[in-house]
Amino acid sequence: MPAKPAPAKPAAPARRGFLYVMFCTWFGLAWTAFTAAMAGMTFGTLRFMFPNVLSEPPSKVKVGFPVDFEEGKVTDRFKEQNMWVIRYQGKIYALSTTCTHLGCTPNWLEAAQKFKCPCHGSGFYITGVNFEGPAPRPLERWSIGIGDDGQLVVDKSKKFQKELGQWSDPDSFVTV
Ligand code: FES
């Protein structure tokens, strides 16, 4: 009677061998590092090709009709949009709310009739001209004009600086 063949040994699972090669040999480690670097580069390239879109607020803002602004008053309701709209001595102009010292936002103090910066104490007249504290120059003015519908339009893409003689530019105020 012929002898029965011995049963074959079960083969080691192929997966175990693959993991051993990839994580326990120099070749495997180098290959894993290379693959990770390539994946990182691909991800970086994709981020470059599809950047996050920043939606900037529009630079032109309608602020109302000239009659909406009272003589000698500072309109504070556009402060979040970096401007005060002011009617003073027959002109309407839009002042930037950025302090010319280090960029803080001053407050309009109605009783004292001045802008006062809370950071280092600079003071500005209603015209925007600095008169106390470390601010080296007046507040800046934005471009302002009348739109087709008769409303005032402030354009923050264009600014005017008094020390450069730009406040006499007709785009820096509206005569009323
Ligand atoms: S930032 Fe306004 S006084 Fe310094």
| H and E order | HHEEEEEEEEEEE
How many strands in all?
11
The main sheet comes to: 7 strands, antiparallel
The number of helices is 2
Helix content: 10-25%
Ligand species? FE2/S2 (inorganic) cluster
Amino- and carboxy-terminal Cα gap? 123 Å
Structural class: alpha+beta
Rg, rounded, reads 34 Å
As residue ranges, the low-confidence spans are: none
Oligomer: single chain
Structural features:
176 residues, elongated, binds FE2/S2 (inorganic) cluster, alpha+beta
Architecture blueprint of SSEs:
Blueprint: H1 14-24, H2 26-49, E1 60-64, E2 73-75, E3 84-88, E4 91-95, E5 107-109, E6 114-116, E7 123-124, E8 130-132, E9 141-146, E10 152-160, E11 174-175
Antiparallel strand pairs: 1-10, 2-3, 3-4, 4-9, 4-11, 5-6, 6-7, 7-8, 9-10
The protein binds FE2/S2 (inorganic) cluster.
Structure description:
- This protein has 2 helices and 11 strands, in the order H-H-E-E-E-E-E-E-E-E-E-E-E.
- It is an alpha+beta fold and 176 residues long.
- Strands 1, 2, 3, 4, 9, 10 and 11 form a 7-stranded antiparallel beta sheet that branches. A 4-stranded antiparallel beta sheet has the order 5-6-7-8, with no helix packed on it.
- Helix 1 (14-24) packs across helix 2 (26-49).
- The chain is elongated, with a radius of gyration of 34 Å.
- The termini are far apart.
- The model has no long low-confidence stretch (mean pLDDT 88).
